[in-house]
Amino acid sequence: MVFLSFVLRLSPCITPNTSTKAFNHLDSITVLFVTVLLISNVASTKIVAFGPLTFDGGTILFPLSYIFGDILTEVYGYARSRKVIWLGFAAALLMSLTFIAVGALPPAADWQYQTAYEQILGLTPRIVIASLIAYFAGEFTNSFILAKLKLLTQGKQLWMRTIGSTLIGQLIDTGLFILIAFTGVFPGSLLWTLIVSNYVFKCGVEVLFTPITYWITGWLKQQEREDYYDAGTNFNPFHLPGANH
């Protein structure tokens, strides 16, 4: 009930009521953002080799969450991005707790895949905590830096703002997750290999997708008639509804 109350408290802020400006595409971007986050968390259970890089499978899709975060902050502002980040956090927490609870329940007598389930979806509390802490710190850092840089550059040089914020946000996200989740589990050499490989791949995706980010943000600004500047915004990540900004 506490979880449901938290989500319901956020929902009106994603889909504005009649007293706030209505947007045509904010809900769609929110759904895509949360979907990418959840799929990435599940795919992270596999460590993959991609050429010279070694990283968890979620890294293939997870960089898109930062691109969506950039778009949310650039077009709609930090406050609306903050609400979407919290919804993603709540959804990831619910998913993780559900996987853990289902894994703890006794399997049916003729179901022989309990070990396989635990290996793939039986997330340990340590990994859940690492994932949520890293997500929270990385996403809010990314959004905060992008919003501040937009004010500093007066809305110019979007490429510098998206790449710059991602370089710092992904460093915090990647470092925290791997160190919290796997210190003492993997040897130190593998930990650093994972951090470097994940970081290089994620930031590389951001750079490669910069032209697409430009196109989407430009299109959304025209469609939504919004190009928010966070002058006077309360950047406290815990500042949730009632104020809009």
What is the gist of this entry?
The chain is mainly α and 245 residues long. Helices cover 69% and strands 3% of the residues.
Description:
Strand 1 and strand 2 form a beta hairpin. It is globular, with a radius of gyration of 19 Å. It has a two-stranded antiparallel ribbon with strand order 1-2. With 245 residues, the protein is mainly α. It has one domain. It is 69% helix and 3% strand. The N terminus is likely disordered.
The poorly predicted ranges are 1-6, 13-19
Helix content: 55-70%
According to DSSP, the number of beta strands is 2
Number of helices: 9
Shape: globular
Structure class: mainly alpha
| Percent range for β-strand residues | under 5%
Give the SSE order as H and E letters: HHEEHHHHHHH
Cα radius of gyration in angstroms: 19 Å
| Main pleated sheet | 2 strands, antiparallel
Q: How far do the termini sit from each other?
A: 27 Å
Number of domains: 1
Q: Order of strands across the biggest sheet?
A: 1-2
Keywords, separated by commas or semicolons:
245 residues, mainly alpha, two-stranded antiparallel ribbon, 2 strands, disordered N terminus
